[in-house]
Amino acid sequence: MRATLPLLRQYGFPAVRRKRLETLQVNLGYRCNQSCVHCHVNAGPTRTEMNAGCRDRGGDQVPAAVATLDITGGAPELHPRFRSLVSGARRLAST
Predict the structure, then answer these.
(1) CB 72 within 8 Å of CB 25
(2) Which of 31, 35, 46, 47 has the most CB within a 10 Å radius?
(3) pLDDT in tens, the chain (95 residues)
(4) Closest CA to 34 of 47, 52, 23
(5) In terms of pTM, does the model score above 0.85?
(6) How many CA atoms lie within 13 A of 68 on its CB side?
(7) How many whole angstroms separate alpha carbon 19 and alpha carbon 64?
(8) What b-and-e string marks burial along 69-84, b requiring 16 or more CB atoms within 10 Å of the CB?
(9) What is the spatial distance between Cα 44 and Cα 58, in angstroms, rounded to a whole number?
(10) In the chain, what is the straight-line distance between the N-terminal and C-terminal CA atoms, in Å?
(11) CB atoms within 10 A of CB 54
C-alpha cells in the first residue's frame, strides 16, 4: 500500500480539521421485509443481525449537539427498539 501523507505534503494539501458533529447515522441492522438484488448490504427477511447498542438503549443516548439523526439499516422501522429510539431523540430535540 502506498503512503499518502508524503503526497499530501508534496502538493500542499490543506490540513484536515474536524468540525462540530452535526449528523449522526445509526445503523439498526440488516433485517428487511424485502430481498432486493441491488441492496448493497444484502439486507432481507432472513437477516437477524441488530445493532446491540440500539437493542438496549433508547434515543436518550443520542448526543444533544446532533442536529440530524439519520436512522438506517435494512428497514430500521422493523427493529424492536425503533419507536423508543425515535421517541428518545425527539424528547432530546425538544429540550
Answers:
(1) yes
(2) 31
(3) 788 888 878 887 787 788 888 888 888 899 999 999 999 889 999 998 877 666 555 555 667 678 888 998 889 998 888 888 888 888 877 76
(4) 47
(5) no
(6) 6
(7) 16
(8) bebebbbbebbebbee
(9) 24
(10) 48
(11) 23
CA distance 57 to 39: 27
Alpha-carbon distance of 69 to 16, in angstroms, equals 24
> Cα separation of 39 and 31, whole Å?
12
Enumerate the H helices of 1-95 as residue ranges. 5-10, 52-56, 82-93
Cell of 61: 443516548
Question: What are 43's three cell numbers?
Answer: 439486507
Q: Which three cell numbers stand for residue 53?
A: 447498542
C-alpha cell at 82: 425503533
Q: Answer for the pair 55, 30: CB distance below 8 angstroms, yes or no.
A: no
